[in-house]
Amino acid sequence: MTSPNLKLRYQAAAGNPQDIEWGGGATSGSSDSLDERIIDEKNKETAPSSSSPNRFLSDLSPFSRRIVRFVTRPAAAFSNNTTNGGASSLPDHFVAECITVTLMRILPAIAVLVGTPLLIWDSYPQNWGVFHPWPLIRHFDMVWSALLHFSIWPIVVFTIAVVAVLPRGGLSKSFAMPTTFRASSSSGGAARLAKMEAVVRSLMVNISQSNWKMSLTLSIAVVTAIVTVMTLQMGMPSALWNPFIWGWYQVYLPGNAIGAVQGACLDVDSSHSSNSQPLCLSESQWDELSSGQLSSLKRDDVQTVQRGLDYLRNQSGGLIVNALARNVADSIPALKQNMDALAPFFKDPHNKLSLVVFENDSDDGTRHHFKQWAKQESSYSVDIMGCGPTNPDCKLGEKDRYDNMNLFKNPTASGVGKLGEFRQIILDYILKKEDTMISAI
């Protein structure tokens, strides 16, 4: 006769023979009858794919399976059974393994997603809490987007969509069969297409049935998309390569800033300003002047702007805007509109606002347009740097960085070029100029 304890132990460790403990329950009976009992219990399983722990652990490595079995081993239950000599029900071993495997898959990923932004970025978010997690989420978003050079949210949505679409356990083998039309066609072209389709479908089935292969494939797809978008954006800048900003992304044009600042009460103690319209500006004007970042309805925004205006108009030595330019003749009007919109914020813009330009090697008339601007401007100063008495127009013979970005022909190619060196040149020029009073650069 077979003890019922043995049946319980077998059911708890089905598929894991090494977890079965023998003894303490079989007082009589032959080994043949015991084997038959085990076989009968195995034949009664109606859904082995969903209830067998071995099938559940098959995606893990041998080392991971050992960890799961070590953590979920029912040693205490067996110990109580042996000590008390009675029949006590074992804990659900399969459920314990499911929970452990789930935690092993989720916790490392969460640790990387959360730990990386906290380890490599020391500017931690402030004023966040359990009921106000947005600053922390925004911090993680900012760090990962900076590391990837791409917004993390499309990647999250793409990954979730793939997981939601794929069936549990991956695509079935029947998916690998080519379509009936192509398979039955006798033409050579159709036969080749059917063969290619069968290869692709088989590859998809193979990848979808493995967790690490799916992760690797998704990573390759995301990296390829990021590199492609970056290359297109640097080679041919356009909103066309940024589909995630189509429709909702707003561009604030420099020409609108001049009209938005008209009628503003820029003196902080102005009696014309009111609580409903701080600085005598409507909410739409605040939106235009701040590119949608500030609001007249937010007290902190209003107070911050008022303190900044008070410093700019009454305490600072002025503002210097510096620009590096090459073949940007078409962009000069937009820069002038921005400078014209800044002038009203100063009590004496002619002595407090200045534009310093370093231009080199342009062949589209950029320097000529800047010189014309400097001659005609009376509200503020426009200063175009030269490169010494022997080279006043800065003809340096430098190759344009956009023409020098082929990594196959030029291993030292850089999208930045010599911008760092030129920025230092313009900074040294500003600091050494005796007739310039500097408060901010």
Automatic annotation (TrEMBL):
Q: Which chain regions cross the lipid bilayer?
A: 106-124, 144-166, 216-236
The protein here is known as Uncharacterized protein
- Name the domain of life: Eukaryota
- Disordered: annotated segments: 17-57
**Where is this chain compositionally biased, Basic and acidic residues type?**
34-45
Q: Where is the composition biased (Polar residues)?
A: 46-55
Keyword annotations: Membrane, Transmembrane, Transmembrane helix
Record carries keyword Membrane = yes
